[in-house]
Design goal:
The protein is α+β, with helices and mostly antiparallel strands and 135 residues long. The protein contains five helices and five strands. The strands form two sheets. Strands 1-5-4 form a three-stranded antiparallel β-sheet. A two-stranded antiparallel sheet has the order 2-3. The longest helix is centred in the middle third of the chain and has 24 residues. Its cofactor is Mg(2+).
């Protein structure tokens, strides 16, 4: 049974400022989990060109995935959730999926929920759509 749905848009250029600004390292640690940071090489400087554009679009899609989850949960960003505990990862097939840790994983288990995720980016925007379903 459907528990909640959420969607979010993220402007890639706006996120780029957060990832390259003076407080980028703190922002990255607060928002992105370890698996996301590794997959997107967020702890390394962004190179110029197509590679950087793809990394930025993926980082924006991951950010939108976090916001979409919070909307589906119906809580917004408050306890027990932490953005870095809500990770958007890619399966071997390339399909996006959520990975939860810490109190967020505990909340999902306590509520008996499974999450589904769809991501897209085009024209300077990234989109995420999340559904939460009872197991």
């Amino acid at each position: 049974m459907l528990y909640g749905i959420g969607c979010d848009l993220c402007e890639i250029a706006h996120l780029e400022k957060s990832l390259t600004g003076a407080h980028a390292a703190a922002f990255i640690r607060r928002v992105y989990g370890e698996a996301e940071r590794a997959a997107l090489s967020l702890d390394e400087p962004l190179p110029a060109g197509r590679s950087a554009a793809h990394r930025l679009a993926s980082a924006a899609a991951n950010f939108a995935a976090k916001e979409a989850f919070l909307k589906a949960a119906g809580t917004g960003l408050r306890e027990p959730f932490s953005l870095c505990e809500i990770e958007a990862v890619r399966l071997e097939s390339g399909a996006p999926s959520y990975h939860f840790s810490g109190q967020t994983a505990d909340w999902m288990q306590a509520h008996g929920l499974a999450a589904r995720l769809s991501l897209s980016h085009e024209g300077g925007m990234a989109l995420a759509f999340c559904t939460l379903e009872t197991l």
